[in-house]
Amino acid sequence: MSIPTPTPTTQSKESVTCPMDFILRMLMGPWTTYILYNLRTHGPQRFGELKRRVSGISAKMLTERLRTLEGAALVKRDYEATIPPKVTYSLTKRGGELDEVMDRLAEIAVRWEAEDAAQRAARAAEARAPENLGELRAAE
Amino acid sequence: MSIPTPTPTTQSKESVTCPMDFILRMLMGPWTTYILYNLRTHGPQRFGELKRRVSGISAKMLTERLRTLEGAALVKRDYEATIPPKVTYSLTKRGGELDEVMDRLAEIAVRWEAEDAAQRAARAAEARAPENLGELRAAE
DNA sequence: CCGTATCCCCGGGGATACTG
DNA sequence: CAGTATCCCCGGGGATACGG
């Protein structure tokens, strides 16, 4: 994966190992959030379906990500040996446990965006009429 | 950054844009969690201090990450033009707002780890005395 | 001390072609 | 349909050296 780890050799005894790192490394994987998000909102679905939805992803990448997620027990793979074969992916119970956190994150993201927009608006207004400064700014 | 984005050109109108993506891209950045974690647990600190703590990171990388975090208003940079110069980094209010989510994540991570350990133990026991199966397994 | 500038290298990931 | 196998390329990031 592309996320550098503290080099094992360089790893000092004072090295910081935050527990959530594992999960973040998971979520952090390229495309991962898109995949989870899709499985959440559109429910269990087949490989091709997922690939179509996560637009731009390559088959190689999608496979690799799904395998990793499966390994972490966040995603379940159902293989039906029909012809043509049918493979369905779905969130596991454990995968669902991330919903809450993801919701919180989404919520924060939305709020920040709104705050930023307000800031920009305030700044624009201030540029036109530079009286009463500071009250918005005070929030940092 | 190393996290692939759906190629803009390939981006379809059905493209999935989950709101938290921005934040995750932020947290996701290499080393980022280590940096935030350190700022949280050891408080405001200077560049070199931080670099020493986040063992293995290069100056280039640390600078780039801090700049990005600063740009996202998660981290504050205090420059004191003494000789030698003194630069202190700290979490902003906004940066602190991630604490809750990070705590939740850490909590989940710890629980999963415990569950996995329990599973392994159960499996080992089962290998020795294969009676009463199923109850742990049933949890998926 | 806190960075930028430069070089260079490795491997992650896309494209393509092919199988069960 | 759901992947693997192969090739190839680009840029992310470390190491090093230097500036304010």
From TrEMBL, chains A, B:
Pfam families for this protein: HxlR
Entry superkingdom: Bacteria
Keyword Transcription regulation found: yes
Keyword entries, A-Z: DNA-binding, Transcription, Transcription regulation
Annotated InterPro entries: HTH_HxlR (IPR002577), WH-like_DNA-bd_sf (IPR036388), WH_DNA-bd_sf (IPR036390)
HTH hxlR-type domain ranges (all copies): 18-117
Gene3D superfamilies reported in the protein's UniProt record: Winged helix-like DNA-binding domain superfamily/Winged helix DNA-binding domain
Protein name: Helix-turn-helix transcriptional regulator
Annotated source species: Reyranella aquatilis
